[in-house]
Each structure stands twice: as structure tokens, then as C-alpha cells.
Amino acid sequence: MVLENQSMIDEEIYHSNEKIVNDIYLRTLAINNYSLTDQQVNNLEQIIYQCPSIGGEAVVKARILYELVNDHIFYDDDELCILQGVSSRMAKPNKIREFDLFPNPSNSLVTLNYKIDKGDKGLLKIIDQLGRPIFTGNLIDDNNQLIFDCSNYNQGLYIYQIIINGELQSSKILSIIK
């Protein structure tokens, strides 16, 4: 009976988070509004520090929206989940990888400087506001730099994701200006 009640609570959290994040998205990025109200920021702050296993996919979406006001924040999901009573996934070595995308904002060429381990397979994905991938570039372990042209993109905010060996390493916002 207790497990059944716990799963009901988690489902409520998932739905509540999705509703809040979708509402903020529709009132901001979906209509090219890149500023958040104090209430929207407060609502996102209630979600961004949740364990994604508890709060659902909306936690990641909230973090991306929150980058409009603070793009220098780090989330340790293993620690957040442990603090919230969820056991962490299987322990895996903590590799330090470096990524620097510039200029951001941009209107022409964008450079991603990166450092990945030899043998790692990486991708840079650029995703539009509707969630459609519009660019995918391979990250090669002995190259350490990827340059791509965004001059044909519409003005607005895009999500860029860095995926190494099939695992999302970073998801941030790229701003295109004209």
C-alpha cells in the first residue's frame, strides 16, 4: 500500500512539473520572449533542484529555461537524488570533459572547443524551439574543435547538446542574433 501511494505522489510531481514548465515555455520562448518574470524564475527554482528520477523530464526542461537567467549553474544529479532518497545509478568514473561554445550569441560561425578522451564518440546537436534537430556534428577525439555556420538560422534561442558515448553531457542555450 505504501509503494502504491508513493508512485501516485511521483506521478503528481511529474504532471505538476510538466504543467509549470510547459506554461513558462509557451509564455516565453515559444513566442520569442526571452525574459522571465520573478514568479516564473521562482517556479523554475522549485523544479531545477529536484532529482530527475522524481521530477521527470520537466526537470531538464526547467534547467534549460532557467539558463535564461543563470547559465553558470551546475547540477550534481547523483547527489541531488541521494539527498532526496533515491539511490544513485551504478557508480561510474567521473570523467572531466571540457566544452566551450563561442561566440554566444552569434550570427555567423560558431566554434565549439572540446576535450574528450581518446576513443570517445561525441556529437554536437543543435535543436530548434520546436525540438527538431537542425544540426548534428561529430566530435572527434583528436580534433578538439568543431566550427559550424549558423548564419542561415532564424533569430532566437536554440538548445545545444553535447553527447558523448550516447550520454548527454551538457545541454545549454545558443542565442542567434541578426
Summarize the structure.
The chain is an alpha+beta fold and 178 residues long. The protein has helices at 2-27, 38-48, 52-55, 58-66, 77-83; strands at residues 98-102, 109-115, 122-127, 133-139, 145-149, 156-164, 167-176.
Mean pLDDT: 82
Helix content percent band: 25-40%
| Secondary-structure element order, N to C | HHHHHEEEEEEE
Strands side by side in the biggest sheet: 4-3-6-7
Please report the total strand number as a whole number. Answer: 7
Based on CA inertia axes, which overall geometry fits? Answer: globular
Number of helices: 5
Quote the distance from N terminus to C terminus. 57 Å
As a percent range, the share of strand residues is: 25-35%
Written account of the structure:
- There is one protein chain.
- The protein has 178 residues and is an alpha+beta fold.
- Helix content is 32%, strand content 28%.
- The chain has helices at 2-27, 38-48, 52-55, 58-66, 77-83; strands spanning 98-102, 109-115, 122-127, 133-139, 145-149, 156-164, 167-176.
- The strands form two sheets. A four-stranded antiparallel β-sheet has the order 4-3-6-7, with no helix packed on it. A three-stranded antiparallel β-sheet has the order 1-2-5, with no helix packed on it.
List the topology elements.
Elements lengths: L1 H26 L10 H11 L3 H4 L2 H9 L10 H7 L14 E5 L6 E7 L6 E6 L5 E7 L5 E5 L6 E9 L2 E10 L2
Antiparallel strand pairs: 1-2, 2-5, 3-4, 3-6, 6-7
